[in-house]
Design brief:
By secondary structure, the chain is α/β, with parallel strands linked by helices. The strands form 7 sheets. A 6-stranded mixed sheet has the order 11-16-15-14-12-13. Strands 4-3-2-1-10 form a 5-stranded parallel sheet. Strands 19-27-26-21-22 form a 5-stranded mixed sheet. Helix 4 links the parallel strand 1 and strand 2. The protein contains 24 helices and 27 strands. Helix 7 packs antiparallel against helix 17 and helix 8 packs parallel to helix 10.
């Protein structure tokens, strides 16, 4: 009887659901009705995305935006926020346009809107995807309260060349970790339901391959095989799309000889047909306009290429507004193609709930309670603490003893702006607590000394390319005078903490560097401090991996803090004095010098693998061939010991699973967290396979002396790759599995896939 009732209930439920129009059906009906009222020009207007005046994030500015809004020629705006400003613009739409279609409002909210978190490369160094998802959710909550609907994030470009400035915006060199972080960010921003007022649309960028720019030079050309695309560079984009990302941004580079913005294989065949993407595609800033300089056609031709390839929204260039009416009339672009693009924009607005409420989420009261709330500020500090990586700690130089006389020397000791980082959105650097402020706040009366030591940037060319007035301490004294003062200060102290690195805008967009060492003036300061004989801890504040061979050889301790965000000064102090134990691990390999670039852990073997025993193997003859710090590397104030890898079975069947396990022990005298990493090597394949591939990781917290068994499930799905026919397969054969604290581990076992 009970079973019969359950079946009847299910039948009634199915019938009721069938009678009730679905959300998608309602949306389609609404959009159909709206588009039936639209002229061709109004449809094209929805494809036009213009920049407002709150911020400048590109080389060419939009003009007469408000008039174009009134004329129904704008579908969205960006670089614009605050409830009052957004409300006024939507008021204009509702009172002065024919169809009253609300605007999308976007902004580059990359690692926080007003509450600023560590840069994405720093967040990746936490290996904490649960926390990263919480951060994306908090960012969406804050940004939506400030009038925003859309962020141009996450940037999921795989990057193996630290000369490229935009490595600061991504997750590093690994496709597996990059994919996990991409999914976490999309889930955090969108929460599976854009109708919630505390969500924003994500935008996966830059599609595709942008991180492989030749020479590490931004906007540069790219050429690679489909095999490398599918196996290495595309997985993070696909993961973000499969996680539900609502929009995708095209990249500036070319793919197979055609700019991404005009590449039909990329935007239609791959993105929409193979991956099933149902959202809309937006260009990067003036990318359609810039296709002319690529040399693929004039203004009309590049517009034709872009919309026929699958672009739905034109950021700033306004070529679609200017060229599409004539292109449709001439038959070079079908009106149905314009309709499809317009529909995708309108669907996004519908899913956001903007047609039901053009003022969605806008509330001065909500902004007051959500922007820089105590919970968000605490999360910013948690992220900063977890992102910091201890690269060296000779003789337990760190943590510091506050009872000692310590000299803090360097141009970043009292710098506010650099802590915030590049792409700091609407964050206010003037409210940031510097490292020095954090010291004085926590250790009032302690014996701390200070000297600037050098200018942050002395190189005239770099000064011209960066904003040296924005938050930097300006001291016109000659370089030698600053060094002499620093040496005298160091002579009065028990030890020295040198705080050096990059200005905030020496990484990020348009900030590629041909050399990624500490600037000469900073290194000269370090060399002078070294001669004092005092123990030195180097604190780095920067946006990319640096070449640190001299520093590694000569400095006692090195702490990589990235660009740590608005609570970064406090987090650095907590780590330095041992109130928190560093647990971050790098997600990009640190080269010994730029001659090793590109350098990454998951490379292929050659027919003459590296060996010190023979000259005729793949290597340089003038330097060590290993990286300075390998992918996944990071130290702690405690020590972790791994047992050998144990497998539950030496054979894995096609539909089965085996378990790899190690016992992890905290063999030191402090509590700490270790990031345990799982790597796999496919020993023989139908195509050559990498020497190692990350396939899993866990953050594990242990008390002193505590041990814990760590397990990873290994399935055939984990072993799949794209073969020469671009088939996603796992091939039978022998595999090595590695478990350890970084990619250089040799703690391994062997199994066979049958």
């Amino acid at each position: 009887m009970k079973k019969t009732l359950l079946i009847l209930s299910a039948i009634i439920c199915i019938a009721a659901c069938a009678d009730k129009p679905s959300h998608e059906t309602e949306m389609n009906k609404f959009v159909d009705n709206l588009m039936s009222q639209m002229t061709l020009e109004e449809k094209i207007g929805q494809l036009n995305l213009l920049s407002m005046w709150f911020d400048v994030t590109g080389p060419r500015m939009s003009k007469d935006v408000e008039q174009k809004v009134k004329d129904g020629l704008v579908g969205g705006v960006f670089n614009f926020w605050t409830p009052n400003a957004v409300r006024k613009l939507q008021d204009m739409i509702l009172t002065q346009t024919r169809l009253k279609i609300p605007l999308l409002v976007g902004y580059d909210v990359i690692h926080g809107h007003r509450t600023i978190y560590p840069i994405p490369l720093g967040l990746a160094s936490t290996w904490d995807t649960e926390m990263i998802e919480r951060i994306a959710s908090a960012v969406a909550d804050e940004a939506s309260a400030d009038g925003l609907h859309w962020t141009f994030s996450p940037m999921v470009d795989l990057a193996r060349d630290p000369r490229w400035g935009r490595v600061s915006e991504g997750a590093g060199e690994d496709p597996y970790l990059g994919a996990e972080i991409a999914k976490a960010m999309v889930r955090g921003y969108e929460q599976g339901d854009l109708s919630k007022q505390n969500t924003i649309m994500s935008c996966v960028k830059h599609f595709a391959l942008y991180g492989a720019a030749e020479g590490g030079r931004d906007y540069n050309t790219i050429d690679m095989s489909r095999l490398r695309m599918y196996n290495e560079y595309l997985p993070p984009y696909e993961a973000a799309v499969k996680a539900g990302a609502s929009s995708v941004m095209t990249s500036f580079n070319e793919i197979d000889g055609l700019p991404a913005t005009g590449n039909q294989w990329l935007l239609t065949d791959l993105l929409r047909r193979q991956w099933g993407f149902g959202g809309f595609v937006v260009t990067d800033w003036t990318a359609i306009y810039e296709m002319e300089d690529h040399g693929v056609g004039d203004k009309a031709k590049v517009t034709e290429l872009s919309i026929n390839a699958g672009v739905d929204m034109d950021m700033v260039s306004e070529y679609m507004i200017e060229e599409l009416p004539a292109l449709v009339k001439a038959g070079r672009v079908k009106e149905a193609t314009v309709d499809a693009a317009c529909r995708r924009i309108l669907e996004a607005k519908y899913r956001l709930g903007l047609f039901a409420d053009p003022y969605r989420g806008i509330s001065e009261e909500r902004a007051k309670t959500q922007i820089k709330s105590p919970e968000k500020l605490a999360l910013s500090k948690e992220a900063a603490l977890k992102s910091i990586v201890l690269l060296k700690n000779e003789g337990q130089t760190l943590p510091l003893d506050a009872s000692k006389k310590i000299a803090f020397i360097g141009p970043l000791v009292k710098n506010q702006r650099t802590l915030l980082g590049n792409w700091a959105a609407a964050g206010d650097w003037k409210q940031i607590m510097t490292l020095w402020d954090a010291l004085e706040n926590k250790y009032a009366g302690a014996k701390f000394l200070y000297a600037q030591g050098c200018h942050l940037v002395e190189d005239k060319y770099i000064r011209r390319m960066t904003d040296q007035q924005n938050g930097n301490v300006i001291d016109d004294r000659p370089a030698q005078q600053l060094i002499d003062e620093a040496v005298r200060t160091a002579g009065q102290a028990d030890m020295v903490v040198a705080v050096l690195g990059e200005a905030y805008d020496m990484s990020g967009e348009a900030a590629s560097r041909s050399n990624i060492n500490l600037l000469d003036n900073q290194k000269n300061l370090l060399k002078a401090l070294k001669k004092t004989g005092k123990p030195i801890a180097l604190v780095l504040i920067n946006g990319r991996p640096l070449t640190l061979q001299w520093e590694h050889d000569n400095i006692d301790a090195i702490l990589e803090t990235w660009l740590p965000g608005m609570r970064g000064g406090e987090a650095i102090v907590d780590i330095l004095f041992g109130d928190a134990n560093p647990s971050g691990k790098i997600t990009m390999t640190f080269p010994r010098n730029v001659g090793q670039i590109p350098i990454y852990y998951n490379h292929k073997s050659t027919g003459r693998p590296f060996s010190n025993d023979s000259k005729f193997t793949t290597k340089y003859i003038d330097m060590e061939n290993t990286p300075l710090y390998p992918f996944g590397y990071g130290l702690s104030y405690t020590q972790f010991t791994y047992s050998g890898v144990q497998l539950s079975d030496s054979t894995l069947t096609a539909n089965g699973s085996i378990t790899a396990s190690v016992t992890l022990t905290n063999s030191g005298n402090r509590a700490g967290e270790e990031i345990v990493q799982l790597y796999v090597r496919d020993l023989v394949g139908s195509i050559t396979r990498p020497v190692k591939e990350l396939k899993g990781f866990q953050r594990v917290e242990l008390k002193p002396g505590e041990s814990k068994q760590i397990t990873f499930a290994i399935t055939p799905e984990l072993l799949k790759f794209y073969n020469s026919d671009l088939q996603w397969i796992a091939e039978p054969g022998e595999f090595l599995v590695f478990v350890g604290g970084d990619s250089n581990t040799d703690n391994k076992a062997k199994f066979t896939l049958r």
